[in-house]
Amino acid sequence: MYEILCAGEPGRGLEAAAHERESAGETARWVWDDTCRWYPGLLDDGVRVERAHDLRLAHGILRHSPLTAGTPFAQMSDAGWDALEPALTGQHSTGRRGNDQGTLNGQRSAGAQGAADGAASANAAAASLFDTASLFEVDSLFDAEPTTAAMSGLASLDVEAEWAAQQAAITASTDPGRLRFLCAAESAAALAAAEMHHAGLPWRSDIHDALLTDRLGPRPPVGQRPERMEALAQQIRAALDAPRLNPDSHQELLKAMQYAGTGAHSLRQWEIRDIKHPVIAPLLEYKKLSRLLTANGWNWCDTWVRGGRFRPDYVVGGVVTGRWSATGGGALQLPKQVRSAVVADPGWVLVCADVAQLEPRVLAAMSGDQAMAAAGRGVDMYAGIVDAGVVASRDQAKYGMLGAMYGGTQGVSGQVRPAFARAFPRAIALVDGAAAAGEGGEVVRTWLGRGSPRPHPDQMASNTAVRAWGRFTRNFVVQGTGAEWANMWLAGIRRRLWDMGETDDGPSGLAPHPFTRRPHLVFMVHDEVVIHSPAGMAEAVADGVRAAASEAGRLLFGPASGVEFPLTIATVPTYAQAK
DNA sequence: TCCAGGGGCGCG
DNA sequence: AAAGCGCGCCCCTGGA
Fold it and tell me: At residue A135, does pLDDT exceed 70?
C-alpha cells in the first residue's frame, strides 16, 4: 500500500515509484491501461519494467476470443475500452509522454494465479514469466487528447474495474490457461516494443547517404529528380516517343506503352520484364530507383533517423492475426538494399536471429502431426520433406507448404496437394478445417485463443468472396499462432538479455539508458530479431536467443510436441551481412 | 484543398 | 515462378 502519486510531478511520480520497485528487485506486474502511454516515459527516466498487464491489448483479445464467447465480458457493450487505440509516440517524439494528468494509485492486489494450465505447459520458467504474484495498479484519467472523436465522452476509464472484469472473463472462459498466456505474452511484447523504440535501430546516415548517392546521384534540390532518374526518364520518353511523359503517372505511362505497341496490360515489373522493347530496360531501372528514393531516400532518413537511431512505432497486435505492425518509416519492410546502413556501435555487434520456417513448424505442433514434426527435425524443413520422400524437390516442398497454409490451388502447390495430404494428414486437416469454418461463416482461433474477425456480409456475397474468406481463416490460425510463438520468444529474449547484466570490460554504447551497457533488442520482424550487443557478450546473447526459442516452443506446445524451432543466427557488424 | 481508392512494391 | 496469406507506404487520380 502506498500513497497516491502524480505521474507528472518531478521526483515523486510514477517514474520514482517504478524505479523504487524495480530496482529493489520486486517482481511487480504493472497493470496499466496502455503500455504505449506509460512505458516510454519510464524508459526516458532509465526505468525498465519487468512485467506488465496491458489492459487495452488484453481487452481486445478477451472481447473477441471464442474462449470467452459465453462470458458477460464478451457480451456487454463497452464503448470505452473498445475504442481505445494505441497511444503512439509520434514520429519525432523523444521526450516523455504527456501524461501529466495521470495518477498512480498504488494498491496491492491479491492475486496469485499460477502459470497457464490447459494445454500450455506450466513450468518454473512459466511461473517466473507469467504469474502475477504481486500487482501494482496504475490508474489514470483519460488523456485530454483522445485519438478518436468517439472517445471524447470518456472522461475516465476505470482501470481497476477493467482489471477485475478481465480476470473474471479469463476465469469464466473455457480455457483460462491459454488466455492467461496470451495476455501475458501480448503484454510482454508491448514492453519489448516500447524498449525497441526507445533504444532504436543503430543507423548510419552517412553510409545511407553514400549508398543513395551511389545509386541515384547527389541529393537533388527539393522538387527535382535525382540525376540518374532524370536521365532514365529522358530515355523512357525517347523510347516511347512521348516527350512530355511523366513516368510517375501510371495512366500516362500505360497509355504511352500501349500506343508504342509494347502489348503491356499492366506495369508490374514481372509482367513487362520479358517484353522486347527499348523502353523496358530504362523503365525497370527507373522504377527500382524511384522505389528506393521514395521509400528509403533522403527524406525518409531526415524524417525517421535521429541521433544515429531509426525509431519506428511498433504496433503490437496491429495485424488482425496478432502479428505486429508498424507505423511510420515502413519499419517492417526495410529493404535489403539499405540494410548496410544498420551498423553496430564501435565495440558492439548485431546478433541477428531468425526462425527457420516458423509457420510450418507451428502448424506441425498445433496439429500434433508427428510426420511433419519429424520432417522439421533439421534446420531446413523443406529439405526434410524431400528426404521423407513426400515430394521430389525442395521447391515443391516449399510451394506445397505455402499452398497448404495460404490456400493455393494453382501450379506446383496444387500439384503436390494430394501428396501433402497423404504425408501430413493431421496438419492438412487442421488448415482445411479452418478454411471450411471460415467459408461457413464461423470464427476460428489461434492456439492461445485469439479469435478471427467475423466476416461482413459483403465478404460472403459471392463464391469467390467466400473462398477468399476461407483462405483468410485458413491462414489466420497459422499466422496468428506464429505471432504468439514470436511474442513468447521475445518475452524470453528480453528477460534473458536483462539477466545477463551489464558489460564490465566492453565500451558503453550510444543507446540510451537503461541499455547503455547492456545487450538489447533493437528490431523485430515477425520471425526475426536483431539484438545490439557488446561484442564480448555476443555468444551469450546467441545462447540466450536459442534458449528462448526452445522455451517458447515448450511453453506453447508442451515438452512432448516433438517440434523444434531451429534458428539461424549471425553475429555481424552490419545487418546487411545477416543473410 | 482534402481524402479515398487503385496500382505497385517492399517485407515476413 | 509472381498462385495462395498478412501488412505500410508511395504516387497519381478523380470526386467532394
Answer: no
